[in-house]
Amino acid sequence: MEKKLAFLGPHGTFSEEAAMALTAGLRLQRLPYPSIIDVIAAVDKDEVDYGVVPIENTIEGTVNTALDWLIHEVDLPILGELALPISQHLLVARRGEQLELAAIERILSHPHAIAQCHNFIREHLPQAAIEYTNSTAKAAQIVSEHPEEPWAAIGTRLNPEIYPLSFAWQEIQDYSNNYTRFLLIGKERLDLPSSSREKTTILVTMPEDFPGALYQVLAAFAWRKINLSKIESRPTKKGLGSYYFVIDIEQKMDDVLLPGAFAEIEALGCQVRQLGTYPFYMYKAT
Question: What is this structure's pTM?
Fold first, then answer.
């Protein structure tokens, strides 16, 4: 039976593009879901075998919904990661005459896409109202279904191939070096291609009333010369000032270095939970 992979839909999102790149060459049925939470829940409930969710953007930072659900609501290992370059485009419905920017009354898109284009919107579309949608593709779909309205969507380069839309302006993101990291999650391993970069992600819970605990946790990696690519705190939701630390380690799980570091951290009274050890890929256009 063909296995299933969920992504944030509808068709034409960056999540679908990331899903296609991460699982290229594999026989998987890709299914769109209406929200990031729905994608994660579908994997957890075995509605699908795998899911792809955004976890961090260069401009907007961490996608808190995805990270918090992976921490608090489910126990799904991370199987792979892809950094996808993000280009945002202003899209309008195809009609007899091109809609002028000054005539656009409403802009629809995902909150992160809107945030990535603040400068463009302020300069060129100050009159337009903002309406948030669950995804860029959903915005594109809505605008395409209302060609009589002076609306525009901020979306992907794939959207005009799927919906009757045209480009009003291309490459409108505020920063050219705009990437989003996507995670592949699932309960069973996939036969992914080898990568020159491997990562391990852990969740560290500090003991209460332990001054200098974070310093000692980091020291366990430092003296072993283990490189950390990211350290982020997230609330435990147990009270103000109570945090987890999510740490990305620039190597895969081994038999000596990482187990030794984890044992040292646990000896401090900390709890260590592995979220996954997996290959990391940079997107390459074909």
Answer: 0.89
Strands (DSSP E) found in the chain = 3-8, 28-33, 50-57, 61-62, 78-85, 89-93, 106-109, 129-132, 151-155, 165-169, 179-186, 197-205, 228-235, 243-249, 271-282
- Whose tokens are 């395409």? That residue is 144
Reported as a single tens digit per residue, the pLDDT across 137-192 is: 999 999 999 999 999 999 999 899 999 999 999 999 998 888 999 999 999 999 99
Q: What is the DSSP string of 49-69?
A: SEEEEEEEETTTEE-HHHHHI
Strand partners, 281: 82
Paired tokens of 155 = 């979306």
Contact 6, 39 (CB under 8 A): yes
- Token pair for 162: 């799927």
Neighbours of 267 (CB within 10 A): 10
Helices (H), ranges, the chain: 14-22, 36-44, 64-68, 111-115, 118-124, 136-144, 159-162, 213-222, 257-267
Tell me: the pLDDT tens digits for 46-82? 999 999 999 999 888 899 999 999 999 999 999 999 9
Tens-place pLDDT, residues 72-126: 999 999 999 999 999 999 999 987 677 889 999 999 999 989 999 999 999 999 9
Cα–Cα dist 128/269, whole Å: 53
* CA gap 201, 185 in Å, rounded: 13
Q: Are 159 and 165 in contact, with CB atoms under 8 Å apart? A: yes
Phi, psi of 55 (to 5 degrees): -125, -25
